[in-house]
Amino acid sequence: MGPEKTIAPAVKTPALKAPLIKWQKPMAGVLYALAAPTIASIYFFGWRSLALLAVVNLAGFLAEYIFMRVYYKEPVSSAVFVTNLIFTLSLPPGLPFWMAALGIVFGIIFGKMVFGGFGKNVFNPAMTGRAFIYISFGVQMTSRWVEPFVGYPGGFGAFAADAVSAATPIAKLAQGLSVPKLSLILGNVSGSLGETSSILLVLGGVYLLVKKYASWRIVASGFLGFIVLQTALWLAGVPKAQDPLVAVMAGAAEFGILFVATDPVSASQTNTGRWIYGGLVGALIVLIRTFSVWTGGVMFAVLFGNTFAPIVDYYVKQSQAKGARK
């Protein structure tokens, strides 16, 4: 028999610790683009908006962290912070903290985690969560608006705006009342936390497009679909159809088209599909505002668009495949 082979004991090397968060450059870009509207929400509605964002971030992060660690063994995607921010900026200033937390947890779990996590969700998780609390807590989501702070130091000198009921610009327009265009541009009107200032939203949207963090096809077709249909209904004298310029600045149309519809996961994935999807979302906002009891329409328009995006992509690819075989 030969000499016995000595087998060295295995040396256990410490496993590399998985990162807690997986940061993605496009997601950071969206956060930068929404920084100005976020700061403006403090100026217009007080520091409570920042506290609300903190609660939503904590609840949303924990919901995704638990699922990713337990079921998927992967780090949390930085996209969760984009979802949290978009969700928060779409809320009324006085919404109770626990309702906001419940909404974002629902959105993260049933809008993203049940589909397999980031990159696999069909619906925009921020709008999924908002739709849940919109249906569950209609009064708090639709009727408890406050007047914004004006002048120096604005909301930077207070925790929250006075709980004075005031109709949002889109609700006033639906009632036949006028809203000053300058107020819509600057943002000193009642409304959701980050959707009131047209100029800040446009500047943030331009940043996304320049950096190529958002599809210009979705943005272009979204505004085109909105403006064309809104103008047609307005010129035809349809009740509730408003001046297109005022209508696009009032409510959340700009916010929805620039920051929500352009979600790279729940939107169409083909270039042709993006044109169709964006136009569909823009047109649906107008139709819902004009012919339904919902004065906003953006949330449902985006979710409807998400529903049909995979179908649109399927037929676009089928058409392209047939063309290639000819």
What order do the helices and strands come in, and which of them pair?
Blueprint: E1 21-22, H1 25-33, H2 35-45, H3 48-72, E2 76-77, H4 79-89, H5 97-111, H6 125-136, H7 138-142, H8 169-174, H9 181-186, H10 198-210, H11 216-235, H12 244-249, H13 253-260, H14 271-291, H15 298-325
Parallel strand pairs: 1-2
Helix pairs in contact: 1-4, 1-10, 3-4, 3-5, 4-6, 5-6, 6-15, 10-13, 11-14, 14-15
Structure description:
With 326 residues, the protein is mostly helical. It has a single domain, classed as Ammonium transporter fold (Orthogonal Bundle). 60% of the residues lie in helices and 1% in strands. The chain contains 15 helices and two strands. Strands 1-2 form a two-stranded parallel sheet. It is globular.
